[in-house]
Amino acid sequence: MTAVVPTLKTFEIIYPSADGEPVAETYDHVYAIFTTLAVLKQYLAHRQATVLANQFLYYAQGFPKLRVAPDVMVIFDVEPGGRDNYKIWSEGEVPKVIFEITSPGTKSEDQNNKKDLYEGIEVQEYWLFDPKGEWITEKLRGYRLGEEGYQLIRDNRSEVLQLRLEIEGKVIGFYREDNGEKLLIPDEWAPAFQAERQRAEAESQRAEAEKQRAEAESQRAAELESLLARYREEFGELPEDKRY
Predict the structure, then answer these.
(1) Is 242 within a domain?
(2) How far apart are alpha carbons 3 and 141 in whole angstroms?
(3) CA-CA-CA-CA torsion sign (84, 88, 92, 98)
(4) What range defines the domain where residue 49 resides?
(5) What angle do CA 4, 8, 14 make, to 5 degrees?
(6) Alpha-carbon gap, residue 171 to 81, rounded angstroms
(7) Strand partners, 175
(8) E runs forming strands in 130-228
(9) DSSP letter for each residue of 182-219
(10) Listed residues 183, 203, 225: the one ending a domain
(11) pTM of the full predicted structure?
(12) Which residue ranges are recorded for the region named Disordered (predicted)?
């Protein structure tokens, strides 16, 4: 009789990429999320980094229920591009900066549970943005990781991103620290492109006018030289200018 040896079955652990929950509560919150995402993706386009929005961040291998979905997170030293979700143990890097677009309905989760979690996994900066100013009077509040945990950021500077953050209506305005230049939001891209195109066209027209002026002067000089040559053929050299 053949003995049957029981074998242990291995099951693949599934890490879902969606849970069917809405992205955000209101249009203002959705707009703030995707504006922040677009601006930072453009800013970091040539860096070894990725920017993700409202995607699951898994922080404990083997425990798919231990997850969080930051509104926007920035991760450095990883392959650029999108992911369906982000597993810290697979990528080898913890997000450096996280933004939560907060509201009274998410206040407790954002200010307590998520703040403790992000501090625990050592996210360097955690920013809370309340686009309607419903519970954060100043609308924007940031924390930076220090020796004693998260410390309130009082100058609205992101040391990690090397950007200065300002409130501009219901979005965050981002300004480069090296040259003060503003990072344009998507709504500003088309007007900026149009203005740059008009400037380029005006510069092209100016250059063309300058070219035509130079050609006219060259032609006039050639005509004068031709007249002078004809004069010399008929009358000889021009009389000397004698001054007494």
Answers:
(1) no
(2) 67
(3) positive
(4) 27-183
(5) 150
(6) 24
(7) 164, 182
(8) 140-146, 149-153, 157-158, 163-168, 171-176, 182-183
(9) EEPPHHHHHHHHHHHHHHHHHHHHHHHHHHHHHHHHHH
(10) 183
(11) 0.75
(12) 195-220
